[in-house]
């Protein structure tokens, strides 16, 4: 005897994806992984040294371009919600990075002097003096 199932509780079996759909999905996931690596790379590079602000700017521009491409692919091809959420979050992080880069570019000399002072500071007092000096040199602080 076959047990009867309620049509509302029956799960539809997923139809296998065509080769073209599988290739498209694989390309989207590869672009998404590359996007995440570039966003994280931009975040890590900006923390190294102010002298690498140019490299972080290139990585941020690349992350914005990749993010827009992956976002369009995710929306038009109805990819997973996780990819969509990750792309939107990564684009927000890239937007914040643009603001950070603009501020660091505008006050390049002050931040460069601050990093040099931090490298030479051997005590907590010297470190706080570096911070105080930076705050005094920045407008509006």
Overview of the structural elements:
The protein is mainly α and 141 residues long. Helix content is 76%, strand content 0%. The chain has helices at 19-48, 53-76, 81-106, 108-120, 124-137. The protein starts with 18 loop residues before the first helix and ends with a helix. The relative contact order is 0.10.
What's the gist of this structure?
The protein has 141 residues and is mainly alpha-helical. The chain contains 5 helices and no strands.
List keywords for this structure.
141 residues, mainly alpha, 76% helix, elongated
Secondary-structure element series: HHHHH
Residue runs with pLDDT of under 50 for 5 or more positions: 9-13
Number of H/I helices: 5
Outline type: elongated
Cα end-to-end separation: 80 Å
Fraction in beta strands: under 5%
Biggest pleated-sheet summary:
none
What level of helicity do the residues show? over 70%
User: Based on DSSP secondary structure assignment, what is the total number of beta strands?
Assistant: 0
Cα-based radius of gyration, to the nearest Å: 24 Å
Alpha-beta classification: mainly alpha
Oligomer: single chain
Mean pLDDT metric: 84
SSE layout:
Layout: H1 19-48, H2 53-76, H3 81-106, H4 108-120, H5 124-137
């Amino acid at each position: 005897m076959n047990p009867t199932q309620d049509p509302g509780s029956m799960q539809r079996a997923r139809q296998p994806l065509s080769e073209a759909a599988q290739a498209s999905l694989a390309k989207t996931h590869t672009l998404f992984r590359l996007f995440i690596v570039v966003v994280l790379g931009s975040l890590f590079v900006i923390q190294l040294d102010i002298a690498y602000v140019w490299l972080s700017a290139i990585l941020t521009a690349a992350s914005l371009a990749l993010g827009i491409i992956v976002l369009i692919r995710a929306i038009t091809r109805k990819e997973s919600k996780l990819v969509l959420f990750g792309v939107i979050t990564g684009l927000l992080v890239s937007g914040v990075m643009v603001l950070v880069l603009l501020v660091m570019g505008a006050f390049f000399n002050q931040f460069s002097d601050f990093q040099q002072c931090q490298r030479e500071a051997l005590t907590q007092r010297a470190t706080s003096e570096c911070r105080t000096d930076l705050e005094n040199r920045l407008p509006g602080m």
